């Protein structure tokens, strides 16, 4: 069983290089696809209280802090949180906590956030049921959850993580893989654990925890953005969910 402790160690080791990939602008998908998609999926967040789950170095937390009232970022990795704090010294309405979302939920009043966001973190989380449950407890009723994941239908074909004839789409499974981006094939120093889950599983967990899926996005680069990549996309690489909490649906 992969534990949160193992995941924290992986991201501790990778924090500085991941920060450089993001800060240098080298991660095209991050800046040109994921951030705009998350902002679009969130819609109007003026004057709200937001939570960034698995916030990493806090790039998205900072972008959202400019658009809303307050942001809290939580992450398992101390190294990630240290960078997030250093990069946010001049941002008054932001705070970061080194914790799992599961523990944060136990120590923070429930029913207090207007929205939760999580960019590309669900694929690194061993206990996704507990994570989604934590978010549903922390959100106010009718609160919004927006998250992005590696598209489970296409990620394996794009990244070639497993041979096509032995890839079992319908089976939850995980593997340790090299984290690379188009413009940095050397990638992060430490392999990271990637959790594959079929779409039906995400839907099941969301519904079980009181969420209604309001919208799904499969962002695809425009021609101009496509030209920035060394290779053309053949299919969507990411999937963005926008969900709303209807507490009366909780079992
Ligand atoms: C791929 S990184 C994404 C970071 C960030 N969202 C971004 O967009 O730059 C995934 C992050 O999720 C964090 N993480 C994984 N499981 C977590 C959990 N249960 N609670 C809080 N953070 C977690 C990891 O430590 C890692 O920093």
Strand order of the largest sheet: 3-2-1-4-5-9-8
CATH topology: Rossmann fold
Uncertain segments of ≥5 residues (pLDDT<50)? none
The profile of the biggest β sheet is:
7 strands, mixed
- CATH superfamily, called what? Vaccinia Virus protein VP39
Q: Whole-number average pLDDT?
A: 96
Q: List the domain count as a whole number.
A: 1
- List the total number of helices: 9
| Sheet/helix structural class | alpha/beta
Percent strand equals 15-25%
Helix content: 25-40%
- General form: globular
Number of strands: 9
Bound molecules: S-adenosylmethionine
Task: Give the termini distance in whole angstroms.
Answer: 27 Å
Question: What is the chain-wise order of helices and strands?
Answer: HHEHEHEHEHEHEEHEHE
Protein model, in words:
The protein is α/β, with parallel strands linked by helices. The protein has nine helices and nine strands. The chain has helices at 4-23, 28-42, 59-65, 78-87, 101-107, 128-138, 155-159, 199-208, 223-226; strands spanning 49-53, 70-75, 94-98, 113-119, 139-150, 173-177, 192-196, 211-217, 238-245. The strands form two sheets. The chain has a seven-stranded mixed β-sheet with strand order 3-2-1-4-5-9-8, with helices on both faces. It is globular. It starts with a helix and ends in a 6-residue tail after the last strand. The model has no long low-confidence stretch (mean pLDDT 96). S-adenosylmethionine (SAM) is lined by residues 4, 7-8, 11, 54-57, 59-60, 74-77, 80, 100-102, 119-121, 124-125, 131.
């Amino acid at each position: 069983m992969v534990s949160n402790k193992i995941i924290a160690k992986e991201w501790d080791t990778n924090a500085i290089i991941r920060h450089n990939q993001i800060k240098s602008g080298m991660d095209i998908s991050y800046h040109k696809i994921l951030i705009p998609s998350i902002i679009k999926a969130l819609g109007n967040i003026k004057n709200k209280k937001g939570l960034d789950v698995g916030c990493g170095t806090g790039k998205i937390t900072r972008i959202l802090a400019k658009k809303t009232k307050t942001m809290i970022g939580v992450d398992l990795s101390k190294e990630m949180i240290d960078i997030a704090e250093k990069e946010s010294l001049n941002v008054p309405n932001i705070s970061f906590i080194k914790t799992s979302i599961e523990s944060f939920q136990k120590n923070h009043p429930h029913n207090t956030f207007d929205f939760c966001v999580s960019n590309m973190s669900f694929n690194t989380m061993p206990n996704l049921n507990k994570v989604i449950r934590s978010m549903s407890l922390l959100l106010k009723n009718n609160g919004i959850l927006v998250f992005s994941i590696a598209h489970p239908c296409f990620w394996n074909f794009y990244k070639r993580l497993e041979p096509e004839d032995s890839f079992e789409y319908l089976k939850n499974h995980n593997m340790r893989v090299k984290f690379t981006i188009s413009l940095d094939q050397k990638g992060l120093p430490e392999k990271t654990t990637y959790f594959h889950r079929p779409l039906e599983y995400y839907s099941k967990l969301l519904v079980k925890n009181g969420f209604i899926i309001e919208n799904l996005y499969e962002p695809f680069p425009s021609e101009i953005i496509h030209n920035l990549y060394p290779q053309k996309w053949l299919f969507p690489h990411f999937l963005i969910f926008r969900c709303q909490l209807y507490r009366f649906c909780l079992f």
